[in-house]
Amino acid sequence: MNGSRLLAAAALLGAVLRALAATPGVDAPPDPAPPRPVAVPAVSDQRLPNGMRVVVVPRHDVPLVTATVLVRAGPEADPSGRAGLADMTATLLAKGAQRGGRAVGATELAVQAEALGGSLASGSSWRASNAAMTVTVPKLEPALALLADVVRRPTLAAAELDRARVQALDGLRVAFSEPGQVASFALRRSYWGDSPLGAVPTPASLQRLTRDDVLGFHRRWYRPDLAVLLLAGDVTPERGLALAQRHFGDWRAPSTERPVVATPSPRSAASALVVVDMPGSGQSAVSVAVPFVATGAHDRRAAQVASAILGTGYSSRLNTEVRIKRGLSYGASAKAETHPEGGVLVAQAQTKPDTAAQVLDLMRDEIARLAREAPAADELAARQAVLTGAFARRLETTGGLSALVASLVTQDRPLDELERYTPEILAVTPEQVREAAARLWRDGTVRAVIAGDAKAGGDALKAVEGRTTVVPLQGLDLERPALVRGP
Predict the structure, then answer these.
(1) What's this model's pTM, rounded to 2 decimal places?
(2) Where on the phi/psi map is residue 421: left (φ > 0), alpha (ψ -120 to 50), or beta?
């Protein structure tokens, strides 16, 4: 480009930039609108004569309904040595069922679901296994008929079990090559120990699963007095109850008492700090666990805000210290898990091997600092806005609304907590946050796992190793509470 053309291009660029520049008071963004009240629908909670619970959450502005059948059993109900059984059973629900007097396979079930304008999903999480679909209102009845068949009359075929096992083993093979997954698995086992909440599916536990195990799990736990039909969307409580009676009313409860799983407090046998050596890994994952509140704790809202201050959102404390100030990771976050007997808060980040020890110290320091120092008012307000904003967004879809109510159901919480969530979060004070953190995060309660190349960690990680257990990846045994493979 010659000089005259270069000058012309520069002049043109300058003109464009001046045209795009905002004029103060004219082109500036508008002021934020006043906050809108969060509209929380009333929840209807009824029961069929056979004990099945029917929960309806009306939302009439969109002609959709998310229909979910929950069975009150998840991984905590897995027998010893059979970790993964609840999830495998739930997975097989969508792989075949008796429909209209004949066996329907996985492909045909998927086609039937798609013909209703939706897709059939099934799975398991803590205290709940489920099958679900989202459909338009005219398709709700046939969708419920489909859900009733897959939950009540699944074929649980041996061939589908073998296929699902291969897929799960492939998933684990990939997971055990990723430091973040390895650290997450090891930290769960390290924190909960031999409690049912500490069980982690392994290749060995998945290989042990038989069709008899799956049939037995279904027979024991899939019963109407442990089941919940949850309908969220354009449906009335009256119609929801009538549909439930039509498709689930003849589901007879067994004469045996309802089974119950005890999930005791953490019983860890591992070191407070475990390094899983993964030679050749380009990244190291750092995971830290501290106790969290039980689902019904009096200070649960303050603890939830404390968790958000630590690790929810870009400007949370962990991300600020680890990523924004020091550039040690692409992100650091924290997430809480609650159970009736207690919970756990897990902080996570990935970093270079030679900075893993530094990230671990930063995470520990931020957890301890919140237990000493109450957050400033503006910091508290920002995290409260993050929590209430996320809550309000979930109310905007039938799937999000269903998930919010399902979490209350599985945690045995009153359903009107949905209405109280926002005002209770906004009522939390800085000192309440500090008090909750101080009660939960005392000295000696922090457990941690670093997964990565121990040699590449250098001198800093060697100093950490002097106070912990180093486990080669090949020697990591997630079926043992101590995490170390025996002789």
Answers:
(1) 0.88
(2) alpha
